[in-house]
Amino acid sequence: MQTYTYRNGKKLLLNKSDDEFVTRETPEELIARGITQVEKTSSVSSKVKTTPEGLEADMAKSRESAPTHHAYYLADTGDEFLITDRVTISFKTAISSEDLAAFMGKYGLVLLEEYSPQDFLFQLTEHTGMNPIKLVVKLTEEEPGIAFAENDTNYRVKRYAIALPTDPDVRPTMAFANPLHEC
Q1: Cβ–Cβ < 8 Å for 52, 19
Q2: What is the Cα–Cα distance from 46 to 125, expressed in whole angstroms?
Q3: Which residues neighbour 59 within 8 Å (Cβ) at sequence distance 6 or greater?
Q4: Is the pTM of this model over 0.85?
Q5: How far apart are CA 47 and CA 27, in angstroms?
Q6: What is the pLDDT at residue 43?
Q7: E strands in 44-138
């Protein structure tokens, strides 16, 4: 069965890596524990490379010290889709404190940020009972009061080479040399 989640209300097909996972630990913390094939994905998270045979055991060991999830890739582009233990949820209407508390209890969530009376950032816990991908699918497909639910992901900034103009009629101007300069 194809793994999927939702983004902007649309189904997003994913491929699960058979030899990588993401954990909320820095490379320094992982290296201190003897894990050496590590890439930094954010200020507090890392992607770990292992073997297909050792993936589940390595993830179980990592879960003893930090939230840990499989590494995913977008099926159509192959781009990383590195989830965290957080989800953004928007309710269709403002939600009361009592209903919010009941919702959080039902799914084992911790409120991290309230953006508006209907938009929230939650962190999953061991009481959630499913990974963030499955939670987003469940909320999107089964909770009628949810406008959308989305995975929080680590986006790594990539540098791209740009070609500077070669046309001799294009001369550097102050605005071209300094894009913050207003003409």
Answers
A1: yes
A2: 19
A3: 21, 68, 70
A4: no
A5: 9
A6: 86
A7: 46-49, 68-74, 80-91, 109-116, 119-124
Q: How many residues does the chain have?
A: 183
Residue pair 95/152 in contact (Cβ under 8 Å)? The answer is: no
For 167, residues 6+ apart whose C-beta sits below 8 A from its C-beta are: none
Distances (CA, A) of 153 to 23, 72, 82, 123, 174: 12, 10, 5, 12, 38
CA atoms of 93 and 126, how far apart (whole Å): 28
Instruction: Indicate whether 177 pLDDT > 80.
Output: no
Token representation of residue 73: 């890739």
d(CA 69, CA 46): 11
Q: Where are the domains of the chain?
A: 3-83, 84-154
Measured CA to CA, the distance from residue 92 to residue 21 in angstroms comes to 33
CATH classification for the domain delimited by 84-154, as one of 1.10.1040.10, 3.30.70.80, 3.90.45.10, 3.40.50.300: 3.30.70.80
Element (H, E) at 62: helix 55-63
Q: Where are the beta strands (DSSP E) in 8-59?
A: 10-23, 38-40, 46-49
Looking at the predicted structure, is the pLDDT value of residue 66 above 70? yes
Q: Burial of 58 by CB count in 10 Å (0-12 exposed, 13-18 middle, 19+ buried)?
A: buried
Look at phi and psi of residue 48 and say left if phi exceeds 0, alpha if psi is from -120 to 50, else beta. Answer: beta
